Every structure is written in structure tokens, then in C-alpha cells.
Amino acid sequence: MAKLVINSYEEFASHLGQKLGESEWLQVDQDRINKFADATLDPQWIHVDVERAKVESPYHSTIAHGYLTLSLLPYMWQQIIEVNNLKMMVNYGMDEMRFGQPVITGSRVRLVATLHEIANLRGICKTSIKFDIEIEGQRKPALSGIATFLYYFQ
């Protein structure tokens, strides 16, 4: 699916209830997990201790931090949509966010997004995007929720 290009509120609104797209698959490797652990000061063994996880983890592997999975959302979102004629875009909030299952190290994930709601608030485009971060080969997503963004068109 090609990247969706949006130039105005009206163009955005025309996609209400529709799947906006899906990102490319991205591998979540141990190096990425270790860097996230360092950045967030969260070195819990289930994420960073490969040998211990092989023995003690119910997954027999390390797993990605749930918030690492969430933090990939902006990178994958920009693969789905390009919004032009903007002064700025602001993250507004997250709703109904659920971690469905862990991302086992070495797995590949992607974002699938649908335009859930849209409103014009005195010239500010408020969008709610229903999202799933899927794990390749798995039925249940790693993470689901609704991300709300404010787009300030010029």
C-alpha cells in the first residue's frame, strides 16, 4: 500500500473509518532492546539477560519492553502517511491502549492504522487513529490503542 498523502482537513476527513495503511515490517533485535533499556533505565532481566531468559522466561527468550513497542509508533506512522501544509503536529493522547502479547526478540512488527475519528476544532484538525502493532506470523497484536494527534494546517 502506498503512503497516503494529505494536504487538508477535508482530505483527511474523507478517510474516516478507513484503513489508512500499514508500515513496513521492522525487526526488534537485542541491540535495539538493550539501547532502549539503557535510555529508559529499565534493565529488567527479561529484556536484557539473554542467558537467564533462555532458562527462566516462559518465552525462552528475551522480549521487548512494551514501551519500546509503543515508541516505534512515530517511525512506523511516518511510513503510512504524509501530511503536508502543516505548521506543526502535536501528540495529544493515547486511549484504550492494551499490550496484547510480548514481542519476542528477533520478531518483526508493523503498524496498521485506521482513521477512527476526526474533528475540526477552530482550524485545528484533531484525529484519533485506531492502531495495531502486529507481530509477523501472530494472530494477536503486540499493542492496540487509539492515538490522538492535533494537526495545525497552514
From TrEMBL:
Domain MaoC-like stretches: 12-124
Alphabetized Pfam families for the sequence: MaoC_dehydratas
SUPFAM superfamilies for this protein: Thioesterase/thiol ester dehydrase-isomerase
InterPro entries hit by this protein: HotDog_dom_sf, MaoC-like_dom, NodN-like
Membrane-spanning residues: none
PANTHER family, alphabetized: MAOC-LIKE DEHYDRATASE DOMAIN-CONTAINING PROTEIN
Protein name (database record): MaoC family dehydratase
Lineage of producing organism: Bacteria, Pseudomonadati, Bacteroidota, Bacteroidia, Bacteroidales
